[in-house]
Amino acid sequence: MRPLAAVVAAGAITPIGLSSLDTAFSHRASAAAMRESPLVDAEGEPITMCFLPTLDPLVTGAERAALLAARALDEALEKLGPAAPPLRVQLALCLDEQLGQRAPGGEASAQRLAADLGARIRARAQEVAVKVSTRGAAGPGFLLPSLCESLAHGTIDAALLGGVHTDYDPARIAALDAAGRIFRSDNLDAFIPGECAAFVVLMRPDVARRCQLAERAQIVGLATAHERARPDNDEPAFQAAGLTAALRTALAPLADRGLRAGWVLTDLTFETFRHFELQAAAARTQRFFCEPQQVESPAQRMGHLGAAAMPLHLAIASEAFLRGFAPHPVAVSLAGSDGGERAAVAVMAPG
């Protein structure tokens, strides 16, 4: 089947790996990264968190996100190699909602970060355009349709889809603590704060061949939707109408060709309403799945993924397909934002 886009390179930095490959293998080995952090809750107690111990512990918030993003982006760009000519590139940068907030009298952290990353890309690109989403975890799913359309029309040669997330910020921890969302022994319906960044380079298959780049994975379906259930309300998560619709739409192109997904990568933490939602949606979409129907939630071992979730899923899947340790050749990435946005992306091994 004709893919919407091909993944030709990936870069990632997470609490369980300093590269895309390290992260994929550590994830496969069920590595966990929980540790006591220097940040404290409202009671002055250190919180359990997954964070990069290699970064300066005094660097927090947007400045820390910039360090994470630069590492992951540089890895993805390096994998393009010397064979790749100067390219027309679209950077699609996905960030968490709080980075889109504008400081009084200044610009939003998201805009500064996007400008810095765009400058890094210009060293090897003929043209660079930048799009920024601050819609959280589902943001990549909302940007992908326009990226795939631009690739198909030939208006760009490559798309860089990236996500950056960090909870390593006193203000962020204070907000999560006030909302009762930080995981601890007496609060299990919550999540473990985390941080990571991931970028994938997308091309049309023919452009990848011209650049002498191998396809690592193929995006073959995508969809977005909205759910009424959110962390700040009591709407029933078992309705799952949005996630169900997104799954059906994303996986329909595969089903039309007799293919089904056997691997599910989610952004689920330990917040139960999202688990209820997935259970309901999975029960209604079983005809699109097959054995081993392996469901993996990296955030439960490397901390909350935020806007980096879907790019990280694509990076993990591409490494697994390339090296032969994927549990199934067809995977689906699922992510949901606090605002109710949901996204599903179907990806398969090339060939």
Automatic annotation (TrEMBL):
One Pfam family per UniProt: ketoacyl-synt
Domain Beta-ketoacyl synthase-like N-terminal as annotated: residue spans: 129-205
Annotated InterPro entries: Ketoacyl_synth_N, Thiolase-like
SUPFAM superfamilies: Thiolase-like (SSF53901)
Record's protein name: Beta-ketoacyl synthase-like N-terminal domain-containing protein
Single annotated GO MF: acyltransferase activity
